[in-house]
Records
---
Amino acid sequence: MIVVLMQTQGPLFVGRAQELAWLSSRLSNIGTGNSMLMLSGPPGVGKTCLLRKALGSHPHPWAKTWEFGEAPGLWPITQLLRSLVRRTPQAFEKDRAILAALLEGGQAPPGEFALYQAVIQSIVQASWEQPVVAVIDDIHAADRSTLELLIMAESAWRGAPILLIMTRRTVDTRTSPEAQHCLARLLQLSDDCVLSGLSHSEVQALASLLASRTVDDEEVHALLRRTGGLPLFVEGLVHSTRGSRILSSRNSRGLPPSLRTVIVDRIGHLSADVRDVLRRAALLRDQIDPALLAQSLRLPSTAVENVIWQAIGEGLLSQEESGVFCDPPTLR
Ligand SMILES: Nc1ncnc2c1ncn2[C@@H]1O[C@H](COP(=O)(O)OP(=O)(O)OP(=O)(O)O)[C@@H](O)[C@H]1O
Ligand SMILES: [Mg+2]
């Protein structure tokens, strides 16, 4: 028998017991160990949702990167600083003049060592007045100056009551080429927790809560097969069924428009060659046969293999022991 959890307060949340326990232990032991944590995973796996759950209703400084266009340099840091200054203004008095570039709206010139030091040391100062637990959501979209500052901060913050928790997409990152190297360095300096799709029982609990009925094993298998356990896609598919049974892709009417938009956006920025190969791959079978693909597209097999590698890097195909597959939920 399946137990459907009754959830009466707050947004729906299922599973992730291990990750919550890890975050909770890091929050209780602030000031020991690494000052930077990373929650990594593909889009829609639930990084932000997990973090909100772990932090509860406490108003921690929360910054979000701006991925859609030109944001001022150090934008996430500016958001955190403004929030911290409201909490403990006296900690920022000493370096007020140098911090004015960020606090009072001007654009900071990137690479300014003195500015970075003032930010880092003021936050240490603030943490001695009140422990600092801060978030930067979507660090993969941060500008290079933000990443450089955080790399410099890591050793200065170690030992102080500071915990910076960041979320990071592992695929579809669109990280600017000049920030790639800094992001990799920051990742090395952080404790990383990689999220994957929800398990069978977690998908069952989520789908049952969303559908307000008990979703049976066969439906959970269909959901797992189509979504890889990504909660964003589980939500979309359950909502699109409007009370009817959840079917495998072969018997369903395809993806709901909300999810189609996500996928079109994800595939849209790839080159035309990659899109062609993916489109054909999705039509042929779940498992990709590079030779068959090359034949059907009349392309040399090396060209198809190159594209397959790119698509694996983008998280649109996955490499498993038995071969290369269209990654759920994107293409099936
Ligand atoms: N553990 C969970 N229980 C229930 N719903 C969840 C869970 N995790 C995520 N969700 C739901 O899935 C959707 C996607 O979650 P979220 O926005 O946290 O993903 P993300 O990994 O931060 O994605 P992105 O990389 O796009 O920021 C949200 O609607 C969220 O409510
Ligand atoms: Mg998120």
---
Amino acid sequence: MPERQIIDSDVVVLGAGAAGMMAALAAAEATDSRERSVCCVSKMPPATPNCTTRAYGDITWALSEHEDELVRQIHETGGWLGELDAIRGLARRVPTVLDRLRLLGVELDEPRPAAEGMPGVIRWSYRGRDSGQSVLDRIRDRALERGVRFFCDHMATQLLVSRNGVIDGVATVSLKARRPTIFRAGMVILATGGGACLYARTDNPDGTTGDGFALAYGAGAELVDLELISFGYPSQRVRDILERGEEMREELLGLGHAHYFLGGVAIDPSNHQSPQVGGLYAAGEVSGGLFGAGRLGGSALADCLAGALEVGGQADRRDDRTDHAGVDDRIDGACAQIERLLRGTADPAPVLQRIREIAWRGIGPVKTGTSITRALEELDALTPRLADLGGASREDIRHAVEAQNLHTLARLVALASLEREETRGNYWRVDHPEPDNASQLRKIVIRRGKSGPEVASRPLELPDDIAPSQPRIGAGCFNYIAPG
Ligand SMILES: Cc1cc2nc3c(=O)[nH]c(=O)nc-3n(C[C@H](O)[C@H](O)[C@H](O)COP(=O)(O)OP(=O)(O)OC[C@H]3O[C@@H](n4cnc5c(N)ncnc54)[C@H](O)[C@@H]3O)c2cc1C
């Protein structure tokens, strides 16, 4: 087994999409000195598609006099399950994001009205679909000038956390060199994107496997709204199918795709830090709770970039609870796990495929308490097959870790979905087809307990002037239409 590699740095950013790239640049600028090093780590080879490079490039925004309208639209689209203060913060910060993109030389198309019935809400695009790579290239060039070090083909497998709950760094497997690479750092920024590849049908690129959710869960951080996922559907077809009623489930399962994870790592909206793990931050799709049960089109990239600027800007601060006692033991443990992985021989591809089919049928767009429970049983039956996954190629190693992460994620999504007995926004429980404002205006949160996941919920307080009615959802998402 090749020697492990240890790299010391101040800040490690996991992910090289919009959130990761911008966080790395902002962190380098905040520290503004080459002594404080920033590393940006990604599991994929350079220029491989991620959600940012697949995006249409739409960014929704409002002039300050229409900011309240934008906030209202985002909040209503999320079925009032979003975090109102965080939504207000996002609406305020989008102009800074657009200024930043312009300064980086990104060309923005002429703004256009976002949609009918949204006075003053405007949508900008950075030159449409597949132009995301050139945006990332511009951010990367500037980050390189600032001394950011980039590590491709390095896949994070475990966050290293001290006994008093403070980050020590992150363990990765170098997919090319087939060896453990450990980044020791007091600040880790998760920017690993969403997890829509949990599902057999998705528009997300390969590798969008929710690794950050599994990493955060393993580290003891709280996850929020994991049951809330956007599914894309042709809404007229859905309407026709629901009107006919029969064979509805099978027909719907033959259409549509998973698009966006609304839930994710719980963060303190004022600084994007995990309240449970000091020094662990999250930005972009991996962070959760902001939008609630649906997302207004063009608000994800805004959130990625605004969040990244916010997080990176704090790179000069430190958690004063730092206690690195025992860090060497933790590193040994993480390396042993990676070495086991590198010795694995079982092909991960069929296991990955099986998890994704279970998820689509059981905890996807059309679910019931029975389908969720069955999915949990099927996932439990797969557990023994996770032990020896691996193989000779770098894809085999990546897929082996992804299969383990998707298995964890599927179980967490299932547990959260069992808890939410209603239909709201993008979230549909066929056996509970109505929204339940009396008992379900709450956040469902999950943490790792002593003997497995612990599910809890937190009520949401709404201001007096907001009275939730029948929730609706935004354009481009699965429009829930009550049967009959
Ligand atoms: C088809 C499509 C169109 C869209 N259009 C729009 C739009 O027009 N407007 C809008 O606002 N939103 C849009 N979205 C949503 C938006 O693109 C995403 O939410 C956003 O790009 C996510 O960015 P991110 O930086 O969080 O993650 P990503 O861009 O997905 O990047 C994740 C990064 O993390 C890395 N990574 C993951 N796991 C690991 C690991 N274990 N170790 C190391 N690295 C890891 C990956 O390699 C990658 O570099 C669209 C999404 C899709 C799929």
